[in-house]
Design a protein that fits this description.
Layout (H helix, E strand, L loop, with lengths): L12 H10 L3 E5 L5 E4 L1 H7 L3 H4 L4 H5 L9 H8 L3 E9 L5 E12 L5 E10 L1 H12 L2 E2 L2 E2 L3 H14 L5 E4 L6 H11 L7 E5 L5 H9 E2 L11 E2 L1 H4 L4 E5 L6 H13 L1 E2 L8 E2 L3 E6 L3 H6 L5 H7 L2 E4 L10 H16 L5 E2 L1 H9 L5 H15 L4 E2 L6 H4 L5 E3 L2 E3 L1 H4 L21 H10 L4 H8 L3 H10 L4
Parallel strand pairs: 8-15, 8-16, 9-12, 12-15, 17-18
Antiparallel strand pairs: 1-2, 1-5, 3-4, 4-5, 6-7, 10-11, 13-14, 19-20
Helix pairs in contact: 7-8, 14-16, 19-20, 20-21
């Protein structure tokens, strides 16, 4: 059986073993069938497996790495002939405890240039990961990332409000993580063992929203082939999260208020009511107080859902969190791909730090995912970003979105022409949509009215354009 000593004949065996075992990183070699041919002292220490128990066994039986069955770095190297550097992997030691390591691989060749196996060098990352987690724990809370003062304040507030039964209204622009915060509140509440049910009120017309929330009986409408319980019932004993609650119609607001005040629901097609016990959390990116003042949102429903308000800032107002979010998302992307986490050039980091993110955290993640896919190596540069990030339109942005120069000057497509613009879903382009959203304070009902389209069509178009 070949081993690494075959190409080290100029060294006495004792000297070779001394050098081999003095290396602080784990090192092992394999033949072409992935059987271990050498295993140094550091490899023994990191894995807890003695040298004698490793030699002659398949490497995946010894290390039990997270990438052994799919994406093995050593197999890729032997297949391609190309080395790999610092691939983040988890292995299981002799006690079956996970150990984080960074793996580098290369091909071993004999004096004639023929491949005789491979070598893998791995570095124990346990101390690094432990320190990183200690630092990260001060900057994260239940998957919410933030070291800024405003996020630290939210971190301290969430455990306090989670223990109550009061209704919570989470306010903030789209893409700021309102659902994550709602889920964190549920996970810390006495209801955490029950269901967390999320409903996007802005994505459903009234009839569908009513049947989804309250349920229906067989034959209540065309297509109702059997009884179906509503989401209120599915959330019984748990938490019901109504996202985009500002988009519900005036007619449905009455039905929702009745259910919340009486704790009873009536399924579509039914004649009797049933009791439900839910903790209500709502969220909106709209100014509900403004909608109330203009008669577009019931004041009694507003006060029913707004017992405890929680405001999430747009990403541009917490820029110190941007580097943390970048690291967090790149770590997720690289872990999922089984590859090394890429680094950003200084110019790329500056671009991302200065950008105003109309789509907030969701947009940042999309930008990084795109760059991760397009990046051929381990470095993300400016040219991996979309053009709107590297050469953004000259605009200033408010809490509700982008306010362009024409809007600042008083131009309004709803009032200047005296008539509404009408666009089909396919004709509606990005600039027109953003301009109309700006002119209407990013209030969807007004924007849909100005464009002559339904709120559902508007929501779908905004989603296609990454504005949600």
């Amino acid at each position: 059986m070949h081993n690494i000593q075959n190409d080290m004949r100029s060294y006495p065996d004792a000297l070779f073993h001394l050098i081999f075992d003095s290396i602080n990183d784990g090192v092992f070699t394999v033949d072409e069938n992935f059987r271990i041919t050498s295993f140094n002292a550091a490899a023994e220490r990191i894995t807890g497996i003695p040298h004698r128990n490793a030699i002659g066994r398949k490497c995946y039986d010894v290390l039990k790495a997270s990438i052994c069955q799919r994406g093995c770095a050593l197999r890729k190297t032997l297949d391609s002939g190309r080395p790999m550097r610092d691939v983040r992997v988890d292995i299981l030691n002799s006690r079956m405890d996970p150990v984080p390591i960074a793996v580098s691989t290369a091909v071993l060749k004999d004096r004639n240039g023929q491949m005789m196996g491979g070598v893998e060098i791995f570095r124990d990352l346990s101390d690094v990961e432990r320190l990183r987690n200690q630092l990260r724990n001060k900057r994260t809370f239940r998957d919410i990332i933030g070291a800024s003062s405003v996020m630290q304040e939210i971190f301290s507030l969430i455990p306090k409000i989670a223990g109550s039964e009061s209704s919570i209204l989470i306010r903030g622009p789209s893409g700021t993580g309102k659902e994550i915060v709602a889920h964190a509140i549920h996970d810390l509440s006495p209801r955490r063992k029950k269901a967390f049910i999320r409903v996007n009120c802005g994505a459903l017309p009234d009839t569908l929203l009513e049947s989804e929330l309250f349920g229906y009986f067989k034959g209540a409408f065309t297509g109702a082939l059997k009884d179906k319980p509503g989401l209120f019932q599915q959330a019984d004993g748990g938490t019901l999260f109504l996202d985009e609650v500002g988009d519900v119609s005036a007619a449905f607001q009455v039905k929702l208020l009745r259910a919340l005040e009486e704790g009873e629901i009536q399924a579509v097609g039914g004649t009797s009511t049933s009791k439900v016990d839910v903790r209500l959390i709502t969220a909106t990116n709209q100014d509900l107080e403004d909608l109330v003042s203009r008669g577009l949102f019931r004041d009694d429903l507003y006060y029913r859902i707004n017992v405890i308000p929680l405001d999430l800032p747009p990403l541009r107002d917490r820029r110190e969190d941007i580097p943390l979010l970048i690291t967090h998302f790149l770590r997720i992307l690289s872990d999922n791909a089984g590859s090394r986490q890429p680094e950003l050039t200084p110019d790329a980091m500056r671009i991302l730090y200065d950008y105003d993110y109309p789509g907030n955290i969701r947009e940042l993640r999309n930008i990084l995912e795109r760059a991760f896919v397009l990046c051929p190596g381990n470095t993300i540069d400016v040219h991996h970003f979309p053009s709107e990030v590297t050469a953004p339109v000259s605009v200033s942005k408010s809490a509700h979105g982008i306010i362009n120069d024409s809007a600042a000057a008083g131009s309004n497509p709803r009032t200047d022409t005296g008539t509404e613009n009408e666009y089909s879903k396919d004709d509606l382009d990005y600039d027109t949509l953003v301009r109309t959203l700006n002119s209407n304070g990013w209030r969807r009902s007004h924007t849909a009215e100005a464009l002559g389209i339904s709120r559902t069509t508007l929501w779908r178009r905004m989603k296609e354009m990454n504005l949600l």
